[in-house]
Amino acid sequence: MRIRAVVTIGLAALIALAGCGDGATGRPVAVGSGSTVTGPITVFAAASLTESFTTIGRRFEAAYPGTTVTFNFAGSSALATQINEGAPADVLASAAPKSMAVVVDAGNGAGTPTTFVRNQLVIAVAEGNPRGVAGLADLAEPDLKVALCAQTVPCGAAAGAAIEAAGARVTPVTLEQDVKAALSKLKLGEVDAALVYRTDAKAAAADVDAVEFPESAKAVNDYPIVALKDARNAAGAQAFIAFVLSADSVQVLTEAGFQAP
Amino acid sequence: MRTARVPVPLLVPAVLGLIFLVLPLVGLLARTPWSTLPARLAEPRVVEALRLSLLTSTMATVVCLILGVPLAWMLARASFPGRRLVRALITVPLVLPPVVGGIALLLALGRRGLVGQWLDTTFGITLPFTTAGVVIAEAFVALPFLVISVEGALRGADSRYEEAAATLGSTRWTTFTHVTLPLVAPGIAAGAVLCWARALGEFGATITFAGNYPGITQTMPLAVYQTMESGDLEGAVVLSLILLVVSVAILAGLRDRWLTAP
């Protein structure tokens, strides 16, 4: 037992060393004023970034040994409220400039937000599209249950804009607090369709199909990212943002269905 | 008793405990926008959420009374195998996080749920996203409160009255309606108020099972949450204040039963 434990520790040390080497050579380490990037970094990010940011966070930790990236994924407006009420965060990645403006206008941003990706809505339907939804107009059918995001979160605002652009009349059965909640109601079979981001439909491709519709081009969401004024780890925040803007991360994001800005 | 000196090791934590409970409420009052309060209270969405909350929590209490009083009687008076297990099962929603209750309700009564599927195909009834769904979510969370307090009242009641009624030839049903119920009426009333208050504050099970739509499923706690999320802190404070006033009013009404309890 003891020998095995020693071997395990040795292996772990080797792996850790290998990680260091990789970070020193392969990844974009030269960030900011050369201050060392270490310690915990807290990132508040829109719910629609859950999958891609989790991947990017893992890669960041590998590239910068000694850092740990913690995420708080929620609706963008909730994140903005939390930050303005003093929640400890280093970075905010929002799903809409409007939610970002709430934080920046309150003087809680450090520097100007950078748009790093864009996202578009699709109509998510159950696998195989049993109700034959082809466009926004089909969502007006009275016996078709539709989940939208609440108007206060970006996916809800975008849905409102797209529905208006299409001149459709959609009466949702529920206004969910974020895009993931809307998608869950669809996965559970409680609704027949949900307006969600293309990226969320893609992440749930095993359970849902995505129906593209032309009016979504009228409601494209820009995703801004910014370091926060009260960041406890300012160097870490800058390094993380630079990492998100790097080619590797952009690839992760576009593979998830985002568009480069 | 009252004049006895309170030992310092008890006094200090006791005062801290009191401050801990009261301070957040003071914080709420401190941020209340008193000048715009009347206008805010008259907003249609506030009125709508309050109306829906009062309606659903009252209906949930009625449901709980109809189901809960007999259940409490069974636990207190009847002896049957597995009674302990039944009591344990009844208290589960008490300790279950309400959001878990909401998921469980979806899986049981949702459109694809165990029973919900059958309700949908046979009667065309779907409960999620309806006001009835809100009542069910609230009743699910509040029922244990009623059952436990009524059972306690039944156990505390003198069973000799019931025995006397039985020796005089009264049936068990007549005994229940004419002797037991009047005997434990105060206990039932207290349980009902507690149950109503719990239903009024219900959030997790409601938003998970019934969704969130103004006028249909958006009760006060959901409206508070959404207002807070939208960055309208002032609006959230106003809505919270209404719930606080209602809660304090209930507490005042219960003063005799709970605050001077033996």
From TrEMBL, chain A:
GO biological process: molybdate ion transport
One example GO MF annotation: metal ion binding
Signal peptide: 1-18
Residues binding molybdate, per UniProt: S48, S76, V179, Y197
Superkingdom of this protein's organism: Bacteria
Alphabetically ordered keywords of this record: Metal-binding, Molybdenum, Signal
InterPro entries for this protein: ModA, ModA/WtpA
Entry similarity comment: Belongs to the bacterial solute-binding protein ModA family.
PANTHER family, A to Z: MOLYBDATE-BINDING PERIPLASMIC PROTEIN (PTHR30632), SULFATE-BINDING PROTEIN (PTHR30632:SF0)
The keyword Ribonucleoprotein belongs to this UniProt entry's keyword annotation: no
Gene3D superfamilies documented for this protein: Periplasmic binding protein-like II
Protein name: Molybdate transport system substrate-binding protein
NCBIfam families with a match to the protein in the record: modA
UniProtKB/TrEMBL annotation, chain B:
Membrane topology field: Multi-pass membrane protein
Domain ABC transmembrane type-1: 50-252
Pfam families in the record: BPD_transp_1
InterPro entries referenced in this protein's UniProt entry, alphabetically: MetI-like (IPR000515), MetI-like_sf (IPR035906), ModB_ABC (IPR011867), NifC_ABC_porter (IPR006469)
Subcellular location: Cell membrane
Transmembrane segments: 54-76, 88-109, 129-154, 175-199, 235-254
Keyword field: Cell membrane, Membrane, Molybdenum, Transmembrane, Transmembrane helix, Transport
Domain of life of the source: Bacteria
CDD domains: TM_PBP2 (cd06261)
Gene Ontology molecular function: molybdate ion transmembrane transporter activity
Cellular compartments per GO CC: plasma membrane
Family in the record: Belongs to the binding-protein-dependent transport system permease family. CysTW subfamily.
Function: Part of the binding-protein-dependent transport system for molybdenum; probably responsible for the translocation of the substrate across the membrane.
Protein name per the record: Molybdenum transport system permease
Source species: Actinoplanes xinjiangensis
